[in-house]
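User:
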Amino acid sequence: MNNSAGNTARLLWAGLRALLVLTVVCGVLYPLAVTGVAQGIFPDKANGSEITANGKVVGSTLIGQRYDLPLKKGEETAAPDLKWFQPRPSNGLGANSVNTQYKLILSGATNRSGDNKDLIDWVTAAKKAVIKDNSVNGYTVRPSDVPADAVTSSGSGLDPAISPEYADIQVHRIAEKNNLSVAQVQKLVDEHTDGRTLGFIGQPTVNVLELNIALKDLVARS
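Assistant: Predicted structure:
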């Protein structure tokens, strides 16, 4: 009986020591080491890839934002503020403007198949809206001009970037709404277009928040 109690006590003490050691190593030393390396080698990414404007953090390069008008009485969905470049469609992005905080509602894909009627209706409606919103005096968007990312959300629903093609068809609208020349706005898009990673991975992209911050600065100077 005494031997059994002694063995149990030794096992409990050994388990407790293992718990304490693993807690210190895995719960304290390892996180501190990883955090220190991350802060030393790539602090920007370690801190959330923050984007700063006028000395304030206004978002992240990794998370998209919406640019909508204030929600009117009786509206369930706010209308887009067409003076800004618009991101991909998404139910996961809260409303915001270029220089305010925004509320993250949810994240996720639609999880609907390509032949799902709801998805087809959403895409069809989104395409009509893109054509209508971006067709201005002297410039008409054709259905064939509308890229896929203009009418579909990403897998996460939080994609911060759009394709250069989607940015390009917004240029004339942005110029008209902000009293800028088309050449000025197109130059902004070109300057904020990131190429493929290592020259061959992925597709060129345009970060919408960074582009809208540059647009805001351009409008202020004009």
